[in-house]
């Protein structure tokens, strides 16, 4: 079974631009979660989607948004990029999104904002 | 609010030594789930184990073992006879059944270096 895939793997953007990251979950998984990882803040939860509905959102500004499609693939968008948005963005998929099932992570997208 | 504390920021051991990574958690819920993940230099988080709050049995998987103690809110991870390939950052995470049921709360991680 293929794992979680994320595209692109690396991205360099300029402050003020916007960016869209993509995540394809494991086949059959309907929950997709997004996390931001930085050296200073560690791993922080962004949002979770299940069957195209956002069920939970972390403490991030409105510049961070996401969506999920009917095939469970998900995208996250960051508008008006700031230097502090430079991070590794990780996507995870699971059957339920709750802790009763394992969450499997993709390789991440490393975003650099200059 | 849920919280996970990994007090050990970095640990160095010589190959073949045993090492224990500590994890202490906080949650108000009686139903919750604990996880350990490994993050090698490549960056991908690799799932190691999931444990629910009603199962306090210790678990062993090869050289890995986990000790879950609800009385001390701890979920420690031991690597026996460490190897260089065990070098990575290890994260403990918590998912509870309340408002945070659809997210993992991670500790800051413990960077393990195994020296040959």
Structure characterization notes:
- The complex is a heterodimer of chains A (114) and B (116).
- Chain A contains no helices and 11 strands.
- With 114 residues, chain A is mainly beta.
- Chain B has strands at residues 3-5, 10-14, 19-21, 24-26, 32-39, 46-52, 59-61, 64-69, 74-79, 88-96, 105-106, 110-115.
- By secondary structure, chain B is mainly β.
- The termini of chain B are far apart.
- Chain B is globular and about 45 Å long.
- Chain B has no helices and 12 strands.
- The interface between A and B is medium-sized, with 27 and 29 residues.
Secondary-structure map:
The complex is a heterodimer of chains A (114) and B (116).
Chain A lengths: L4 E3 L2 E4 L5 E6 L6 E8 L3 E9 L2 E5 L6 E5 L5 E5 L8 E8 L9 E2 L3 E5 L1
Parallel strand pairs in A: 2-11
Antiparallel strand pairs in A: 1-3, 3-8, 4-5, 4-9, 5-6, 7-8, 9-10, 9-11
Chain B lengths: L2 E3 L4 E5 L4 E3 L2 E3 L5 E8 L6 E7 L6 E3 L2 E6 L4 E6 L8 E9 L8 E2 L3 E6 L1
Parallel strand pairs in B: 2-12
Antiparallel strand pairs in B: 1-4, 3-9, 5-6, 5-10, 7-8, 8-9, 10-11, 10-12
Classify the helix fraction of chain B into a percent range. Answer: under 10%
Number of helices of chain A: 0
Largest interface: A-B, 27 and 29 residues
The number of helical segments of chain B is 0
Shape of chain B: globular
Structural class of chain A: mainly beta
Structural class of chain B: mainly beta
Average pLDDT over all residues of chain B: 93
**How many strand elements of chain B?**
12
Low-confidence stretches of chain A: none
Average per-residue pLDDT of chain A, rounded, comes to: 95
Described by strand count, sense and barrel closure, the largest sheet of chain A is: 7 strands, mixed
The assembly state of the depicted protein chains is heterodimer
Low-confidence stretches of chain B: none
Q: What best-fitting shape of chain A do the alpha-carbon axes yield?
A: globular
